[in-house]
Amino acid sequence: MVVLKNVPVLRKLIETGYAILFVIVLSALVGLILALPVMLLWNYVFGGIYKISVFQAWALNVLAGIIFGRPGEKK
User: Fold this and answer.
1) How far apart are CA 25 and CA 23, in angstroms?
2) Planar angle of CA 8, 13, 18, nearest 5 degrees
3) Where exactly are the structural domains of the chain?
4) Hey, which of 19, 23, 35, 62 would disulfide with 57, CB 3.0 to 4.6 Å?
């Protein structure tokens, strides 16, 4: 890792990449955790007809966020 000590721009770029990767992984984990209640509620209400997985509930959360957005958000 001598190259990193000699090139501060490269070190800063790698540190920034790690930070971005950390934020992406953390937001994916939080999204999956928040999709759990959606999955449980969907399977409780529509369980006899069609059951969904956690990843499908996650996609449903994303889709609802795209369609409905945040209240008070102007376009």
Assistant:
1) 6
2) 125
3) 2-66
4) 35
Give the model confidence (pLDDT) of 13-39 as tens digits.
Answer: 888 999 999 999 999 999 999 999 999
CA distance 55 to 42: 13
Q: Could you tell me how far CA 1 lies from the centroid of its own chain?
A: 32
d(CA 4, CA 73): 43
Distance CA 43, CA 26 (A): 26
For residue 52, the 8-state DSSP code is -
Give the DSSP letter of residue 68.
H
Give the pTM: 0.67
With beta carbons less than 8 A apart as the criterion, state whether 54 and 36 touch: yes
